[in-house]
C-alpha cells in the first residue's frame, strides 16, 4: 500500500491484491464511483454504487468497523473522490490503484452481463 499525507490526513492507495484480500476477509466496504451504466454492465460482486456526480463525502459512514475503499474504472475518479473525502474532514481514506480494469486484468471474479440474454452472470476472471 502506498500512502500520501495531506495535511493531517492520509490517502491510502491500495493494490488490487490488497483490496481483494481485505474484501475476502470482509474488512472493507468497497464503493464503486463509476456510472450506473458501467456498474450494471459489470461490477465487483457486493461493491456499493455511489456515482461520482452524486458523491457527498459528508454522508459517508464512519470507518470504525470497516475501512472504506473507493474504486472506478481506472483509478482516476476514485482518487478524486478519496481526495474530496479528505477535504471534507475524513482523516484517512483509500482507493484502489488501477481501478476495475486492474481487477479484471488480475483475473479476479466479477459480475458481468451475458450478451446473449442480458442477464447478469459471474465471471471468474
UniProtKB/TrEMBL annotation:
PROSITE patterns in the record: RHODANESE_3
Pfam families: Rhodanese
Keywords associated with the record: Transferase
Record-linked Gene3D superfamilies: Rhodanese-like domain
A GO MF term: thiosulfate-cyanide sulfurtransferase activity
Highest taxon listed in the record's lineage: Bacteria
Domain Rhodanese: 24-112
InterPro entries in the cross-refs: Rhodanese-like_dom, Rhodanese-like_dom_sf
Name assigned to this protein: Rhodanese-related sulfurtransferase
Metal-binding as UniProt keyword: no
Amino acid at each position: 500500500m502506498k500512502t500520501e499525507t495531506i495535511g493531517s490526513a492520509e490517502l491510502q492507495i491500495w493494490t488490487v491484491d490488497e483490496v481483494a484480500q481485505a474484501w475476502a476477509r470482509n474488512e472493507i466496504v468497497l464503493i464503486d464511483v463509476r456510472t450506473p451504466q458501467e456498474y450494471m454492465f459489470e461490477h465487483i460482486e457486493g461493491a456499493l454504487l455511489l456515482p461520482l456526480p452524486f458523491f457527498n463525502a459528508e454522508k459517508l459512514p464512519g470507518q470504525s468497523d470497516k475501512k472504506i475503499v473507493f474504486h472506478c474504472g481506472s483509478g482516476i475518479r476514485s482518487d478524486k473522490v478519496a481526495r474530496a473525502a479528505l477535504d471534507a474532514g475524513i482523516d484517512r481514506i483509500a482507493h484502489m490503484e488501477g481501478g476495475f480494469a486492474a481487477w479484471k486484468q488480475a483475473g479476479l471474479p466479477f459480475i458481468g452481463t451475458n450478451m446473449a440474454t442480458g442477464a447478469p452472470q459471474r465471471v471468474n476472471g
